[in-house]
Design brief:
Layout (H helix, E strand, L loop, with lengths): L12 H4 L34 H11 L12 H22 L19 H12 L6 H11 L4 H6 L5 H13 L10 H7 L3 H16 L8 E6 L4 E6 L2 E11 L8 E10 L3 E3 L1 H8 L4 H6 L2 E5 L4 E2 L3 H9 L2 E5 L10 E4 L8 E2 L13 E3 L3 E3 L2 H8 L11 H7 L6 E14 L3 E3 L5 E3 L7 H5 L1
């Protein structure tokens, strides 16, 4: 999620101009480009700077912030890069040349369509398509009355354009197949002013983020539905996750992973027990390993009196660990006031979906066994927590837990925009509709 030291991550000036396919070869930009000057009037770094020059430029770009925003830290680099992108989109928004892609049938490689010219223009403005010499020749011919054969080249969806579309799709969390369907067109047609709002909201969240994320940490980005393990700002591992529904939102928080639980039991939150599980009937619940327990942890029968006590909080509904448990075989404890934790799940099919907000707030993991092996790798003697040992600990229904000798920082964040390790600006849908409120 962070950026490697010294990456030349700014987009080139040619990508930042408001380009029109019909006038591109003839016009020169009259305004200062975002790579020349940012919103605050400070000089922004050029794309070809070496790492030392790049760091100094980022330091200048954040000089109006506190010293904790140093470009030599992951926090400072991301913050500075986001401010650069804010300046880029401010420039794009102010030109007035941005035009959406007209509706119509999906555009795919090999087709000819008048809308392809508009598609090229958008991708050039966003920085996903460079201006090749061939394209410059095409636009020059189009503005000077060229032959029909040359004119038609501009509306051909060629391989160069496909690469630009796929890059755009990857940056927006879409399937990178090169087909401009409705979802891709909607992303292309998001107005620059709306993107500005998104960038402003994410910059505000960065100001609330711990300045020191730690040399090795886990980060869960809610809108991206992804968990990453970062070490020295290098991504070591990632997996898909399921986060909370809109009505059961996963909160933003920073804490530490302190314990791994094998074959965890599940003490069902009272609202879930009353609304979702009790209507299934005592027989069904018993067959699935659920039982009522009193405040001393002793099992009590599914009687009318105990069900009334459940509603009042004197009795809880608990599912035993092991096969069929809703939390699966692994639970990762991250102490916090909202009682959020990371865990395995029975519903593996949800990880195949693009949108994955289905939980009651906790974070479900696609590959919990691999995460357990990673976080336990340095626990005890080398190789102690191998696959065989993990298999023994997750067999049967016995619940066991292991305290981590070295707790790992965990940051659950809400980033709908960020600059990745390749220097590319990413956007994701605002699943909880928080950007507008944050920007305001």
């Amino acid at each position: 999620m962070g950026n490697k030291l010294g990456y030349p991550v700014t987009f080139s000036a040619a990508m930042l101009l408001s380009l029109s396919v019909d006038t591109l070869a003839l016009e020169q930009p009259a305004q200062t480009t975002p790579n020349q000057q940012n919103q605050t009037g400070q000089t922004a770094p050029a794309a070809r700077q070496n790492p030392q020059e790049r760091s100094r430029a980022e330091d200048s770009a954040t000089s109006d912030q506190s010293t904790s925003y140093s470009p030599y830290t992951p926090y400072g680099r991301q913050y500075a890069l986001m401010r650069e992108e804010l300046a880029r989109y401010q420039s794009l928004s102010n030109t007035g040349n941005w035009q959406p892609l007209p509706a119509g049938q999906p555009l795919a490689p090999g087709v000819r369509d008048e809308r392809v010219k508009a598609l090229r223009s958008l991708l050039m403005q966003y920085g996903d398509l460079t201006l090749s010499s061939d394209m410059a020749a095409v636009t020059a011919h189009n503005t000077t009355g060229a032959t029909d054969k040359t004119k038609s080249t501009a509306d051909l969806y060629d391989q160069q354009l496909r690469k630009g579309v796929e890059r755009f799709q990857r940056r927006h969390g879409l399937r990178a197949d090169g087909v401009v369907d409705k979802r891709t067109r909607d992303a292309l047609n998001t107005p620059p002013k709306k993107r500005l709002q998104t960038l402003e909201a994410n910059l505000a969240r960065w100001q609330q983020t711990p300045k020191d994320l730690g040399p090795r940490y886990l980060v869960v980005n809610i809108p991206e539905y992804t968990l990453r393990l970062m070490q020295n700002e290098q991504e070591q591992y990632q997996m898909r996750v399921v986060v909370g529904k809109t009505k059961h939102q996963t909160p933003r928080l920073s804490t530490r992973m302190t314990r791994v639980v094998f074959n965890p039991t599940w003490t069902v939150p009272r609202s879930i027990a009353l609304k979702e599980l009790l209507p299934k009937g005592a027989g069904t619940l018993t067959s699935r390993g659920y039982r009522l327990v009193n405040n001393r942890g002793k099992a009590v029968p599914f009687s009318g009196a105990n069900l009334r006590a459940l509603r009042l909080g004197g009795v809880a509904l608990r599912q035993r660990g092991g096969e069929g448990n809703a939390l699966g075989r692994f639970k990762f404890i991250i102490p916090n006031q909202q009682a959020i934790f990371l865990h395995d799940t029975q519903k593996k099919e949800l990880f195949g979906r693009n949108q994955r907000a289905f939980s009651h707030g906790c974070v479900r993991l696609q590959k919990p066994r691999e995460l357990a092996q990673i976080v336990l790798a340095d626990q005890g003697r080398p190789g102690k927590w191998d696959q065989e040992r993990l298999a023994r600990f997750t067999t049967g229904s016995r619940t066991r837990s292991v305290e981590l000798d070295q707790p790992i920082p965990v940051h659950i964040v809400y980033w709908t925009a960020w600059v990745d390790e390749e220097g590319l600006l990413n956007f994701r849908p605002d699943v909880y509709q928080l950007d507008k409120n944050t920007a305001e």
